[in-house]
Write a structure and sequence with these properties.
alpha+beta, Beta-lactamase, 11% strand, binds 6-diazenyl-5-OXO-L-norleucine
Length: 306
């Protein structure tokens, strides 16, 4: 299938809708300043075909999409032991909700809600110590072939206003579920969320998720086993878009991971990875037009896991 004409068509259909709905994330001041009327889309197939449209080369704050990559690092090193601290059930709650943590003694429902990603960041600090942030950057450099960096302004902006994440981390700490101190864990978490990447880079970086864990550029290098990769994809489908996971499965039917910067990564197993970006969000914190673009993509191509 030739994908460039499909992406061009989607771009033409989305562009008139820019600015018509949704709002940029306002609880992180540095994100509140991002102009809403932007849209980009990129894909990369398992055999290396690439296509992109709109603002696909413009870097944005990947926010919770980073949870895919930190989970990958933690699964590589910890295997099954990771699940002693983190569940794998959908939360049915907003990504920054505190309510389930108390009932479930500080064990987050899944690695993609904020509490779960904070627990993953804690595991990475225990494994890699001070190098943990550098290890995340090295993974992203290796996956994209580009020098990826943290947007330190976004990280600082989130640290200054991250009251809910402090509450979540302190709560987990009170249950003995974090080994490192709260400040250090959140510094790691805020930096991973502040990774700055474009759709083109994200579609490349996620490539191992459609190839049974094989590195997108280096054949023979496995980031994850086939089984671990299947598990990340199923977690994306059930938990990757928080309390909108049912709606995503219904309308799109692909494993997806979203972020409040407006990015969404989607996987068509054994075929391709796709990244979309548009900063205006719906009430669940997912990109409004990003979701629409993914829906158009599956409708036009028939590609879906169902
Ligand atoms: O912790 C936060 O609230 C943000 N750094 C990330 C949240 C996020 O992207 C959730 N996604 N929809």
């Amino acid at each position: 299938m030739k994908f460039q004409p499909v992406l061009d068509e989607i771009d033409a259909e989305i562009r008139p809708l820019l600015g018509a709905g949704g709002t940029v994330a306002s609880y992180i001041p540095a994100l509140a300043r991002v102009p809403a009327a932007q849209f980009g889309m990129a894909l990369r197939t398992c055999d290396g075909q690439e296509a992109h449209a709109g603002d696909a080369n413009k870097p944005f704050s990947i926010q919770s999409v980073s949870k895919l990559f930190t989970l990958t690092l933690a699964m590589q090193r910890l295997g099954e032991a990771l699940w002693e601290r983190i569940g794998r059930e959908p939360s049915g709650n907003p990504f920054n909700s505190l309510v389930q943590l108390e009932n479930e003694q500080g064990k987050p429902r899944n690695p993609f809600i904020n509490a779960g990603a904070i627990a993953v960041a804690d595991r990475l600090l225990s494994l890699f110590g001070r190098e943990a942030k550098t290890d995340v950057l090295e993974l992203m450099n290796s996956l994209t072939g580009d020098p990826i960096s943290f947007d330190v302004e976004v990280a600082a902006s989130e640290a200054a206003t991250g009251y809910r994440n402090y509450a979540l981390a302190n709560f987990m700490k009170s249950f003995g579920k974090l080994d490192n101190d709260v400040e250090t864990v959140l510094d790691m978490y805020f930096h991973q969320c502040a990774l700055s990447m474009s759709c083109v880079q994200l579609a490349r970086a996620a490539g191992y998720l459609c190839r049974d864990g094989v590195h997108p550029w280096a054949p023979g290098v496995n980031l994850l086993t086939e089984r671990q990769t299947r598990r990340i994809n199923s977690l994306m489908l059930t938990c990757g878009t928080y309390d909108a996971a049912g709606e995503f499965a219904f309308r799109i039917g692909l494993p997806c991971k979203s972020g409040v910067g407006g990015g969404i990564v989607a996987v068509v197993p054994d075929q391709l990875t796709l990244a979309v970006w548009s900063p205006a969000l719906d009430a669940t914190g997912n990109s409004l037009l990003g979701m629409k673009a993914l829906e158009l993509f599956v409708t036009k191509t028939g590609l879906s896991v169902f």
